[in-house]
Amino acid sequence: MSDRRRGSASFCGSPEHGIGRRAFLGGLAAVAADMTVLDVLKQPAVAAELKKQQKRVILLWLAGGSSQLETWDPKPGAPTGGPFRAIPTSVPGIQISELMPKMAKRMGDTTIIRSLNTKNGDHGGGAKLMMRGRMDDPSLRYPDLGAVIARELGQVHSAVPDYVSFYSSTEGRDFAPGAAGFLGSRYSPMELTTSLMPENIRRPDAISEIDHAERAELREVLSKRFARGRSSSELGAHNEAYARVRGLMASDKLFDISKEPQKIRDEYGPTQFGEQALVARRLVEAGVPFVRVARAWWDSHGQNFETHQELVPELDHVMSTLLDDLKRRGLLESTLVITLAEFGRTPTINASLGRDHFATAWSATLSGCGVKGGTVYGKTDAKGQSVTDGQVGAPELFATIYRALGIDHQKNYFVGSRPVPLTEPDTDPIDDVLV
Questions:
Q1: Where are the domains of the chain?
Q2: What would the pLDDT profile of 197-214 be if each residue is shown by its tens digit?
C-alpha cells in the first residue's frame, strides 16, 4: 500500500485529527492541500493556533481613486463637502460618510488614516507607488506588497498560491498589475480577470482521481531515482513546481463559492465584488497570505456624487460583511484588511460635477490584525485641501502594514551583493495605530 493510502487508512475522519496530523507534518498551511477541512478553522482552538502561526492580508483595492470626502473623511457644510452628511460611528468622536452606515457600526475594528500625502496624482504612477510603497529605480524593479507578503508570510512547502489578485474590470487593470520584481516569479500573483476560478487547474474528466494520484506517485519515484547522486537548484525548482501544481489542482474547491452555505453567500451578496471577497475569505482561511480584490472604477471626473452613491454602499456592505465573517471565524485578529487606492479625489468640484485626481490629502483604512481599532490618525483642514496633522507618505504606510503583520520593515533583501531595504531608509511606522 502506498504512503498516501496508508495515511488515509489511519485517518479517523475527524476534523481535529486532520488538523493535528497536518500541523505536525508540515504546519497549518498544509491544511490547504485538502479543502474538505476548510470549515474546521471556525473552531476556536484551531483558529487560535492559526493566529499564532500565520498572518495574512486582504487588500480591497479601490481602483481609479475613491473619494475620501464621500467615505472616510467627510466635510459636510464646507463649500467642497458635497451633498452627503457625516454620521456618528460606534466610536464616540469619529464620523464617516452617511453612505457607510454598516461600517459606522463596526468602527471598533478599523483604523482610519486621514493624512496621506503621496504626491503622485497619475493613475499609473500612483498605482505603482501604492502597490509597492516606492517607485522603481532605473536599474531595479521592486516587488509589490503582495509579493513581499507572499515572501515573508508564505510557507516554503505550501501547495496553495501565495498571492491571488482579482481584477475583473478592464479599467485600470494595466496600471497596477501584480509585480514580484527582484523577488522573482516564485512570488508573482495568480491573476484572475475573467472568472472566480483559475483556468486549467481542474483534473480532466478523462483521467480518474486514482489514475491522477498514481501518475503523480510514479513521477515522484522517477524523479527521486533521477536525483540520486545529482545536486542542482534546477532539480529542486522542478520538483517544487510539480508540488505546487498538484496543490493548486487540489485547491480548486477554494474558489468554488457553491461550497459555502447559502446563508453566507446571501450575506456577501450576488455582486462580483461580494463574491470575490467571499473567495478571498476562503483563501486566507486556508492559508493564502495575500489576496487583492479590486473594485473599479472610481475615477469620477464627472458625476462624482452619483458614482459614489452607487459604489460606496457596495463597499460598505462587502467590507462590513467580510469583517463580520472573519471575526466570527476567529480570523480577524490574524487578518489585516486594507482599503487603498492610487490616490483620493479633489475637494474642488469641477464643472462636470466631478472630483479629479488628488494625492495631497486622502485616506486609507486598516482593520483587524495588529492595529488599534476605533482610531483615526491624522487630520485635514476644514475643506480637505491639505494635511494639518500627522502627514504620512507611502513608505510610512507600508512600514505600518509590515509592523502590524510582525515583519521587520527595516530588514534588507539582497539583489546580488546589493542590500535593498524593505522600506525606504529611515522610515518609521505609525506607532499610534499599532497595538
A1: 29-196+259-433, 200-255
A2: 887 666 667 777 787 677
